[in-house]
Amino acid sequence: MGIVARQSIKGSIVSYFGVFIGFITSMLVVVPMVDPASYGLLGILCDAATLLGSLAMVGMGASGVKYFPYFKNPAKHHNGFFYYLLVIPLLGVAVFFSLAIILKAPIINYFSQNAAVFADYFFWIFPWAFFIVYQNIFATYSNVLMRIVIPRTVQEVIIRVFNMAILLMFAFDIIDIHWLVALQVMVYGVAMLINFLYIARIDKLTLWHDNSFVPTPMRKEIASYAGYTLLASVGTTIMQRVDSFMIAGMLGLESLGIYRIAMYMGIISEIPSRSLFAIAQPVAAEAIKNNDAEALSKLLKQVSINLMLISSAIFLLLYINVDNIFEIVPNGLRYASGKWVMVFIALAGVINITFTFSLNILQLSNYYMYYLPFLLLLSLCGILGNRLLIPYLDINGAALAKVITYCVFGLLLTSFVYYKLRIHPLTWNHLKLLVLVLMAIGLHHLLPVLPVPFFDALYRTIVIAVFGVVLVYKFKISEDANKIADKILKKSK
Length: 493
Fold this sequence. Notes:
mainly alpha
């Protein structure tokens, strides 16, 4: 995959370094020293700002990726592409921020019974959302130029480093809850600024544009696509965060704080997709533009199996050590009720990223109008699942609802994309990998339990890792993984 492989590997390294920082923050700062209710408040504000930001972007993230190939011309400053990317979201900010203010009363009323403190921080959502909008806009511009590493570093590392510092100050009573929220918002402002300075460095930014370059038919097409993408991004955001909103409203901020810690650990299984999708989307857009179905099919299968392999390894790592993790971490028993949340979220992540690049391709294709119904279906399944399962299974119900939703969604999406585009992500290697994962789980349950959690986790991880690596290589699950292994073995000789 050339540049896709190089950039995605670099991006993945950055992402996992960010995960390490996030792990340190969660396990050594939040769990031992931050009460779940305060962490839950910070989480619900972040989710609300992210939802508002996704609305205000008015679909310009995905639209930028899809239509950049038509604007691409370095000699002519990409025909004013940056101007449109910068200015159009301002309309979204004006419209949706106003709408959020109008709907303030019913929003606050929803949280009034179990999360009443949300009302005291409602207006912090707006600057937070604004910074999220333009942090993502500037990252999109960098992505279409095939430069994902710095924006990924900002998102995965810099924000998390600042988060850890702020939470430490809160834990040691240097700042109170008000400053905790305020400084968190400022972190995203800094992230936005760094992304802007980076794209200003790698490209000569200008507000020059020529409206005549974009003929009326293309304007209508872009507007239509952006409208669909706007609704789709809302569906995505709701699907990703509906559990947080419903837990806060139905169970309270303390339950949400416990859920978010466990969810953060589980969602690690989806981290590989962030870098690979960011760099693979422009390649897919180019293949679609050139009507190269063979290249598109190869890309889809390659992305799917590589992501399933990496995410399955992470899922196994979490599954076999779920009890050890909360016993090793100081004060971990306070959050241990979320251990099955971690497992379910990790499993949901494996299912999601195995199939979801098909959704990205659908979004970039001429059938993009079907992208919206699929995401709305996903959101509705998530809402219904949470509504039915949370009252019976508490926070575990929210996590299980995510697993069920992704299973149904993945099967329907794959069938539809194959029907329309005659491509699908599945190969025999997916089935072989599934069998290997089940075998590894069986081996885990046969291993004796050591009395010391740290040593139990260490030996268990080593045994399962050796078992998995050998069989993945032997059965050639991933062509890319085998190539990397061959290079390592060649150098070691």
